[in-house]
């Protein structure tokens, strides 16, 4: 055992971890809220400026998706932290179910983000007036982050 665990009674350790869990989950909720507010502001601004086309809408969705993925990662971290000290089998089962659901959400969000990014790059690199299917089946030569990147919007 580590010295910290030996010095703290289990109830105190549960209290400390409970506080950490709330902080991590709050951070995740805050990231999701900021992302939603950012996306809404960009959506309104695009509508006011008359740039509310499909390409701009997809860029906004892509940015919001990045925030959602990051927020869900924080939420999953909070769930893992919650079961760090003497978890029961019921808690382990709940964690497994929650982790599976959140991992599936992250997977599908990540896949959609990659598809949206590829679509945006295809439209941005297409010759003027050509928005049809791309003939280039090779890897993207864009200068932006790769489709699997979980970074925040630029």
Principal-axis shape: elongated
The sequence of SSEs as H and E is HHHH
| Percent of sequence in beta strands | under 5%
For the secondary structure, the number of strands is 0
- Mean of pLDDT: 79
Low-confidence stretches: 133-152
Computed Rg: 21 Å
Count helical runs: 4
Measured between the Cα atoms of the first and last residue, the distance is 44 Å
Share in helix: over 70%
Jot down its keywords.
154 residues; disordered C terminus
What does this structure look like?
- This protein has 4 helices and no strands.
- The model is unreliable at 133-152 (pLDDT under 50).
- The protein is 72% helix and 0% strand.
- The chain is mainly α and 154 residues long.
- It is elongated, with a radius of gyration of 21 Å.
- It starts with a helix and ends in a 29-residue tail after the last helix.
Short précis:
The chain is an all-alpha fold. It has helices spanning 3-7, 10-49, 54-82, 89-125.
Topology at a glance:
Blueprint: H1 3-7, H2 10-49, H3 54-82, H4 89-125
